[in-house]
Design goal:
- The protein is mainly α and about 220 residues long.
- α3 packs antiparallel against α9.
- The relative contact order is 0.14.
Length: about 220
């Protein structure tokens, strides 16, 4: 896209600081059902689901955890079986060697340091094997204590299209979004972008004619 067109488009929609609240409000109306797609019943199941979701789809994770969570109900359960058995049980999520190792390491740490419970403190979540910032952000947000903004592929793509960031690195994108998005919206904002990206702002064929952000809030609109 020519630089002159981008500059003109950003001038047309106005500064991002003025657009962020209307963006959140319109997306909240358009996607009132936006929520995490993973199925879980407890903080432990939430943590495991998010850890398994790396490099696969939420639908696939839910298919695996439907039986997994009936077999593994406590941290002890994940350590009571041979690692090969756990690997077979999570095989369909991909990268099962690494995921099984991370799950067992996490369960051991939960028992050793946190009385078998998933910690609420963000820094404690980051101590768990296989838990990076994105996973910790998801777990914290779903427990009502958002400490940052989850950045996945949809959030990255849409925040760039909306002119909210020029960054490519997820950590830098999160930093830009955290400066813009009101803290009370940190938890729901990623869900709104994710659902908008799946339903309307599709990567290769965005439905700009159906978008509630076009034409006055999105500099990338085609209408």
């Amino acid at each position: 896209m020519p630089r002159s067109y981008v500059a003109e488009a950003r001038k047309r929609v106005g500064p991002k600081k003025q657009r962020i609240r209307p963006i959140v409000e319109r997306l909240a109306v358009e996607h009132a059902d936006a929520r995490i797609a993973l199925t879980f019943r407890s903080p432990l199941e939430l943590l495991v689901s998010v850890m398994l979701s790396a490099q696969t789809t939420d639908v696939n994770v839910n298919r695996v955890t439907a039986t997994l969570f009936e077999k593994y109900r406590t941290p002890e359960d994940y350590l009571a079986v041979p690692v090969e058995e756990l690997e077979r049980d999570i095989f369909a999520t991909g990268f099962y060697h690494q995921k099984a190792k991370a799950l067992r390491g996490t369960m051991a740490m939960l028992l050793e340091q946190f009385d078998g419970e998933v910690p609420e403190a963000f820094d404690d979540l980051l101590k768990l094997p296989g838990v990076a910032r994105k996973t910790a952000n998801v777990v914290a947000a779903e427990r009502g204590n958002a400490q940052g903004i989850v950045v996945d592929t949809h959030v990255r793509r849409l925040s760039q299209r909306l002119g909210l960031t020029k960054q490519e690195d997820p950590v830098k994108i999160e930093r830009d979004l955290a400066r813009l998005v009101p803290r009370e919206d940190w938890a729901r904002f990623p869900h709104l972008l994710i659902w908008h990206g799946r339903r309307i702002c599709i990567a290769r064929a965005p439905k700009c004619e159906e978008c509630p952000l076009a034409p006055d809030l999105c500099p990338s609109t085609r209408v």
